[in-house]
Amino acid sequence: MAAIFLGVAVIVACILVCLPLLIEKAARDALIKIPRNATNEMVQDSISKYLDDEYAEKVMRVAKIRGSEYGERYGAYLIEQGMSPLQAEHRLSHGAQQPLTVTINRFRTLENLAKKVAAKLDFSADDLIKTLKNEELLVEYGLTFDQALSLFVEDSYDFYWTASPTAFIQKIGANYNKIWNEERTQKAKDLGLTPAELMTIASIVDEETNKLDEKDEIGRLYINRYKKGMKLQADPTVKYSVGDFSLRRILNTHLKTRSPYNTYLNTGLPPGPIRTTSLATIDQILNSKPSEDIYMCAKEDFSGYHNFAATYKEHLANAKRYQAALNKRGIKK
């Protein structure tokens, strides 16, 4: 009889110990990042930070029962809302990593892009830029370091937190090569451009307008100027050279800014793009209709669209109307 009571007592004790490990639920999703050579204490601290101490203690109790050690579990793992401590520990010790989404959109400098990416993945911004300076890596994509921003076509990409800078670039680069297939490369060639040159023009076009239905005309205009050996005289390159994209009015003092990116001072294309660009912009330019336009000016109605002109006389008339509209609104810069 005593043995029966003892057995029941043991069962009850086991239930009391194990039941909370089965029925308690995580209050929210929590991405737990386990660094290289992590200790169990480090993992517990991370769980406590994103959930709570009590839940973390129960997860680690399961880990102790199972004999789990996290030193070889370098990665990011998702504890989902509603997971029990038992399920959470199994995810941390045996589950697959959680892919993280990195969105590339409207980056104007490689440094800012690298900082945003480094905030998501487990390498530094300096490590990414240092890797991009490897000429052998970029030559596969027909790019120089000055053109490296071209590689990052605007899109959302999934990576594991543990991805290396090289692996990150190779995945981004695979998409770049997919975009620049034989058909698009031939279209660029028909326009007298390499893919890298078209990417630079596309970056200027994206800074000129958010109007997708006008990007073909603007792109063709800059191609016309480039092929004629004219200065592009693109205001966004001046803003890039000055380092101030908030400028609403380009003054003569801005036009004199010394920079290889200032297309008012330098003939030809800038050394590289002045921002990331999208597939939509690329295709708009590649499929643009021929035109004679070599001048454009923002419309005086401030709609975001432009007036185009093939002659300087027509352009001066357009510019006069726009300048008058700026003055009327008191816009000085």
| Gap between N and C termini | 94 Å
User: Count of helices?
Assistant: 15
Structural class: mainly alpha
Strand content: 5-15%
3D structure, described in words:
The chain has 333 residues and is mainly alpha-helical. It is 51% helix and 8% strand. It has helices at 2-23, 40-50, 53-66, 85-94, 110-120, 125-132, 135-138, 165-179, 182-190, 195-208, 215-228, 235-242, 252-255, 279-286, 312-329, and strands at 30-34, 75-79, 100-104, 155-159, 295-298, 306-309. The strands form three sheets. A two-stranded antiparallel ribbon has the order 1-2. α3 packs across α4, α5 (110-120) packs across α6 (125-132) and α10 (195-208) crosses α11 (215-228). The protein starts with a helix and ends with a helix.
Describe, in short, the structure shown.
It contains 15 helices and 6 strands.
In terms of topology, how is this protein built?
Layout: H1 2-23, E1 30-34, H2 40-50, H3 53-66, E2 75-79, H4 85-94, E3 100-104, H5 110-120, H6 125-132, H7 135-138, E4 155-159, H8 165-179, H9 182-190, H10 195-208, H11 215-228, H12 235-242, H13 252-255, H14 279-286, E5 295-298, E6 306-309, H15 312-329
Antiparallel strand pairs: 1-2, 3-4, 5-6
Fill in the keyword field for this structure.
mainly alpha, two-stranded antiparallel ribbon, 333 residues, elongated
